């Protein structure tokens, strides 16, 4: 996580995402701007957070640990969104892990500042309640998806989420080196996920070669996802 000392960029991002209706200008000098690379972890389970983080550019993946040591995919967050809101409200350690899927910019706001000036601030409370509501909805949705839908459909949705960037461009390939992790995130076994991928290859939807999965038929993949979204 790299701190960016660019107050003008910080101000521009707050204006772009209409956040000056939530926060007072006199407090902006205490806000921090961070840049994270693709694959970098924002925070992990058990971390003690000191800042509320506003994702203002990029895309992150959020997962939660299971008792067997594996992880389960909860959702993908696009900008603008928030991470750390549950930890801010409950004052507990992080329950989930957050990983950047692209280069990300996040605005950090110290919990102490928020407790002192915004804990009873109507605009801020409405803002954070909206994000908490979205978190509850997406977590419930992910639990339903993992219980009630086929792995083939979940993997199609996962592929679409991983391959489509925040600027709506499309990357044609995804590495297969982390399929064990992907299987865990989707709540299935590595062997079963391999069978699913082989089935997609037979249907000529994807191609598997040299450590990557390449999408050959985007339309068929979208049909297979059938509107399933980890968001």
From TrEMBL:
Keywords: Activator, DNA-binding, Transcription, Transcription regulation
Entry keyword Heme: no
UniProt KW DNA-binding keyword: yes
Listed Pfam families: cNMP_binding, HTH_Crp_2
Gene3D superfamilies (alphabetical): Jelly Rolls
Residue ranges constituting the Cyclic nucleotide-binding domain according to the UniProt record: 10-109
UniProt superkingdom: Bacteria
Protein name: CRP-like cAMP-binding protein
